[in-house]
Amino acid sequence: MNLKEIQELIKFVSKAGVSEVELQQKDFKIVIKTTNGEHGAVSAAPHVVSVAQPVAHVAAAPVAAPQAEAAAEKPVDNGKTITIKSPMIGTFYRSSGPDKPSYVNVGDEIKQGSVICIIEAMKLFNEIEAEVSGRIVKVLIDDSSPVEYDQPLFLVEPY
Fold first, then answer.
1. Tens-of-pLDDT digits for all 159 residues of the chain?
2. Which residues make up the CATH 2.40.50.100 domain(s) of the chain?
3. CA-CA distance, 119 to 127, in Å (whole number)?
4. Which pTM was predicted?
5. 110: left (phi > 0), else alpha (psi -120 to 50), else beta?
6. Fewer CB near the terminus (10 Å): N or C of the chain?
7. Is domain 66-158 annotated with CATH 1.20.58.100?
């Protein structure tokens, strides 16, 4: 089963209004669970595993409102700011730990190369450094939120 077929299956399950679907074929098994009409966890795992067989894992997130997506994709840009974007897919953290202060806040001055956040990808915590020197105008993503490649994270007014 390829990615397009899995996506079509997820759409079908969403429209059908069922809470759980399980599909098993020769080399893998997929389970799609929904809660309260929203997408829940989706996982695909091999039934028989050998070294040469690829293992596919798929995750489906709840569908966001179109207005929220548009706001996230188009940060406010008055022509004087630079957008710092995510260099990878992962989970965005504003600090090095839950009890630690944020690396940067709105109004803070940053220097090129200074750590501004962490993105966790595949159990690795990657420190993200500022691309420019300037002042943080806006933080565009919430702490502990998933981020996509090239997703805007911060607006910076450069010096």
1. 676 777 777 777 777 777 777 777 777 777 777 665 444 444 444 443 333 334 444 444 444 444 444 434 444 455 689 999 999 999 999 999 989 999 999 999 999 999 999 999 888 999 999 999 999 999 999 999 999 999 999 999 998
2. 66-158
3. 7
4. 0.52
5. beta
6. C
7. no
